[in-house]
Amino acid sequence: QLQLVESGGGLVQPGGSLKLSCAASGFPLGTFLIGWFRQAPGKEREGVSCISSDGSFTNYEDSVKGRFTISRDSAKNTVYLQMNSLKPEDTVIYYCAAYLRTSIVCSTRTSSYNYWGQGTQVTVSS
């Protein structure tokens, strides 16, 4: 069973930075795709970024391009989302998700993923 645990959320001022972590267990990183998603109250969950199973391909939603960076550490079996220049509208719950498949590309469609973490709250406020 693949399990995902997010951490790193919290309160940050506008313009600040946070680094989210998604620690995976049960399977090594090279065997699945990972995506980051976020969801505001009353809204649908939306894709933010993803990384292919071999780490060679990344994808970003337009509103975070140039501000967020996805990366991974195979030794720690962990995927990260570095978030810079945070805005109040980035205040939502962030989730990581995985799809057990090796692929050189990835998608930020929520329907493409079948393992989900519990989420971590990010609040951007002064």
What does this structure look like?
By secondary structure, the chain is mainly β. The chain contains no helices and eleven strands. Strands 2, 4, 5, 6, 9, 10 and 11 form a seven-stranded mixed beta sheet that branches. Strands 1-3-8-7 form a four-stranded antiparallel beta sheet, with no helix packed on it. Strand 5 and strand 6 form a beta hairpin. It is globular, with a radius of gyration of 13 Å. The N and C termini lie far apart (40 Å).
Q: Keywords, please?
A:
126 residues, single chain, mainly beta, seven-stranded mixed beta sheet, four-stranded antiparallel beta sheet
**Cα distance, first to last residue?**
40 Å
Relative strand content: over 45%
Low-confidence runs of at least 5 consecutive residues: none
Radius of gyration: 13 Å
Q: What about the largest sheet?
A: 7 strands, mixed
- Oligomeric assembly: single chain
Summarize this structure briefly.
By secondary structure, this protein is mainly β. The protein has strands spanning 3-7, 10-12, 18-25, 33-39, 46-51, 58-60, 68-73, 78-83, 92-99, 115-116, 120-124.
Secondary-structure blueprint:
Layout: E1 3-7, E2 10-12, E3 18-25, E4 33-39, E5 46-51, E6 58-60, E7 68-73, E8 78-83, E9 92-99, E10 115-116, E11 120-124
Parallel strand pairs: 2-11
Antiparallel strand pairs: 1-3, 3-8, 4-5, 4-9, 5-6, 7-8, 9-10, 9-11
